[in-house]
Amino acid sequence: ERRVLGVANLSFLNPSGIMSDAKTTQPNAMESTEEEPVHLPCNHSTISGNEYIHWYRQIPNQGPEYMIRGLKDNVTDGKATLIVAVARKSSTLILPRVTLGDAGVYYCILREGDENLP
Fold it and tell me: Among 26, 55, 87, 106, whose Cα sits 20 to 30 Å from the Cα of 67?
């Protein structure tokens, strides 16, 4: 039996803490069914030409974890896919099969330049 990951468990927030980014907007919360894909949207209408889209997640009681980044092309790394809209005004992080272990806070932020470190 598949369990539903409720809003309390699987939330995608843009908090006012260290990972927040005034240039991006995300839904306050989402829910998904276990083993199903989930699509996490992020709007960034003021993105500049050299800003990369970075996604992090924070599992409860852990520090932020780098997930994936992209400039203008779609990126897949096995655990997630980043879809970048043609005009780069929005992007979507796709988690192919979520489990209870994926419950946490997901952050979309913009950073200039191609940094070697996440």
Answer: 87
* Span 25-34, pLDDT tens digits: 887 777 788 8
Helix, strand, coil percentages (3-state) for the chain, rounded to 5, are 5, 40, 60
Burial 27-44 (b: 16+ CB within 10 A, else e): eeebbbebeeebebbbbb
pLDDT category at 21 given cuts 50, 70, 90 is: low
* Cβ contact 26:14 at 8 Å: yes
Residue spans per domain, the chain: 4-112
Considering the domain 4-112 in this protein, what is its CATH number? 2.60.40.10
Report the DSSP pairing between strands 75-76 and 81-84.
Answer: antiparallel
